[in-house]
Amino acid sequence: MKKGNPYSGIPQPITALTVEQDLKLRLLKDGINSPETDIEDIKTVFLALQKQNFVLINSLNNLLAKWPKPPMTMDPNITGVDPSKSGILFVNKN
């Protein structure tokens, strides 16, 4: 990202879990596999998490739809990367 340019691209998503998240996931897995766990409890948690997922998706879509667009006078190369250095560019001239 270029400093001072608010439209210099988006950061990459973080897909790695923290140690705390990894531990919580392990505890959930152990709890689900426990013979004392009621299937109705698992169903309730699953449906609640799915609803939260839908709310998050709707919120992100709304945020992206209303995000300020860059001015039209701005360089179309918003990534800040020289296109000639990012791979082969194929152009079909007819």
Taking all Cα atoms into account, the compactness measure Rg is 22 Å
Between the first and last Cα atoms, what is the distance in angstroms? Answer: 35 Å
- Strand-pairing-aware structural class: mainly alpha
Low-confidence stretches: none
* Helical content band: 40-55%
Output mean pLDDT: 80
What is the N-to-C order of secondary-structure elements (H for helix, E for strand)? HH
Number of separate helices: 2
Percent of residues in beta strands: under 5%
- Largest sheet composition: none
The beta-strand count equals 0
Outline type: elongated
Description:
The protein has helices spanning 19-33, 39-66. The chain has 94 residues and is mainly alpha-helical. The protein has a domain at 38-67. The longest helix is centred in the middle third of the chain and has 28 residues, at 39-66. The radius of gyration is 22 Å and the shape is elongated. The relative contact order is 0.12.
